[in-house]
Amino acid sequence: MNLPAPRVAFFADSFHEVNGVALTSRQFEAFARRRGLPFLSAHTGPETRVWTEGSVTRCELALGRWTVPLESDLRFDTTFLRLRKTVGGAIDAFSPDIVHITGPSHTGILGLIAARQRGIPLAASWHTNIHEYGGRRLERILGFLPGSWARTAGRWAESGALAATLAFYRFARVTMAPNPHLIHLLETRAKRICSQMRRGVDTEQFHPRFRDRTDDALVVGYIGRTSTEKNVQFLADVEEALRAAGVGDYRIFVAGHGGLLEWLREHLRQCEIPGVLEGEALSRAYANLDLFVFPSETDTYGNVVQEAMASGVPCVVTDQGGPASIVAHGVDGLIAPIGSEFTEAVVALARDPERRRKMAEAARAKALTASWDSVFEEVYSAYQHALSPVQS
Predict the structure, then answer these.
(1) Is 51 within the bounds of a domain?
(2) Which of 34, 175, 361, 392: CA 20 to 30 A from 287?
(3) Which residues contact 92 (CB under 8 A, 6 or more apart)?
(4) Phi and psi based region of residue 85 (left: phi greater than 0; alpha: psi -120 to 50; beta: remaining)
(5) Are residues 156 and 230 in the same domain?
């Protein structure tokens, strides 16, 4: 960064939870701390308090009594306006040059309000396809209706949620998104300058050296949230395709949290499902896979895909969403539309250990180029557009 670093107030949808937004938010705060950059980090926490350590000021906001569940560990606080005074005080004391929000959560809305009331330039990064999540979940809730009715309701919900989300992002002077599709969406429909905000990966935490398996089974794995929008039910189709192809010595490994863990335990025949893993246990889990399978069509990036690649594991991903922009088809993994082509891609790699070995080497090499520092240096470059004298 050639220009003096701006004072940044960062309002994160998620921070302490286990998901991609939280991981990115924690890494961003750590980057600011390492570089000695003036940084206000605002997010939900166990209690409402504001304190400063070094160059970083932390503003944690406790949830109220009336919340709406979004995930098993993530909730929307319907009484968030009670926190305006706390947030306003933190903003005024910190005096930021720019406010950066990560989406339309209660924390993001508080950041938006504070920025507009004080005339502070606003940047917004897109991390989650809320509209697709809402549509998929509504379809599941309405599963008792005829299929066409549920799908129609899901499409209406998705369309309405997308329009509302784009309206929210129009408040920002500049936007950031993790993949080319979303960049195009924000530039054409929200009419805002949009820069790419990639994701980094810790290539020391996720490393092939953690592999310690001694058996010869083929281990096909998924690590992440086990919810409807992740399409994890398709892992049952993957297993059936392996069995039909005569692959008998295998197991399906699933780690993470979410509402479909029990469904997976009931429907997968040869599986290992330990739940949430952290630290070295997570590192070993990735490295002990032979193939990482990610059937989600709604992910904006796919941090777990990049973690698998850093661990020296080739990936099979869908042709929808962010993971398709991470994997190089035929080089470090395969990209296929969900359905028979996806399961055929899994079976093809299951039968070809030498091809998997070459892809594993290429996957690790690519991951080594994705540092978190380079990601956030690009974010600070994007801030200069928001801070330029002529508003776009």
Answers:
(1) yes
(2) 34
(3) 118
(4) alpha
(5) no
